[in-house]
Amino acid sequence: MEVDASIRELAENPNVHQPLAAGRELLTDPAGRFAIYLSAGTSPHSATVQRVRLGGDEVCGVVAEIRAMLREFGRAGAEWELGESCTPSDLVSRLSVLGIVPDEDDPVATGMVLEAGTELPSSVGVSARPVASIDELVTARRIQSEAFGGDTDVIELAQAEADFAAEGVIGSTFLAFVDEEPVAAAYASYTPLGLLLFGGATLPSARGRGAYRALVAARARAAVERGTPVLVAHAGRMSRPILERLGFAPVARIDRLLDVF
Length: 261
What we know:
This protein is an alpha+beta fold. It folds into 2 domains: 5-109; 117-228, 3-Layer(aba) Sandwich (Aminopeptidase). It has helices at residues 5-12, 14-17, 59-72, 91-97, 134-147, 157-164, 211-226, 239-245; strands at 25-28, 35-38, 47-50, 77-83, 101-102, 108-115, 126-130, 171-178, 181-190, 194-202, 230-235, 249-260. Strands 1, 2, 3, 4, 5, 6, 7, 8, 9, 10, 11 and 12 form a 12-stranded mixed sheet that branches. The protein is globular and about 55 Å long.
C-alpha cells in the first residue's frame, strides 16, 4: 500500500503522536535523536523509545543517556520500537551488543493502515462501544491486564478517574460485549491524521467470537464521525492476521526490543 510520509511516520511512531493523558509524558531529545513515551507504572513496558535517529558513533553514548534518564524517572527498563526509518541501518544489532535484545513475546510488529469508512463484518450477539463510566473504564483495564498476563489487582482507581475526564476528548476506551457480557477492550487515540489503535485484548474464554473485530469496527465508526481518514495499528503476531482479514495493509516493519535494567 502506498502511503504518504506523514501516515508512515504515524504507523512507525504512534506514541510520539498520541495526545497525552494524565500521568503520561513524552520526552523528546532537543537534537531530534530519540523520543521516550512514559506511561503509568515503573516496569520496562511503561517506557517506550521510538523515532531513533543516530549516527553510528553515537549509539553507545545515547543508550547510556537514555538509561540514565529512565532511572531518574524510576523505570526498570524500556521497550524500544524501531521502525524502518531509524538510523543507523544496523541499529538493532548494535543495541543487541549493549544488552537491548528482541522482545521474546513479540519481536516484530507491523504498522498497518485501513482507510476509514471501510465496511467491516460483525457477529451476531457481539457489540462494542465507548466506555460510559469510570467503572466501565476499570473493567476495560482489568480485561486488558488479564488478557496480556498482567496483575488485575493493581488497576488504580485514581488513575482511572483522572483518565475518564479525557474520554472522548483525546481518545476513547472501548468495550466489546458478547451476549451483553464485557469480554474485550481497546483504545483509540485521536490525531488529526487518523485514529491510533492501541491495546486491543480479549479474554481467553471469549476468543474466536468476534469481539476483537467488533472493537475495530467501533473505532472505525469513530474515525468516520471525526472525519479522520485512516486507522493505524501496531500489529503483533496475534492481531496481524485478524487485521489483514479486515483489510488493513502493512506499511512498516517495527522491531520490538526490550532493555531490562
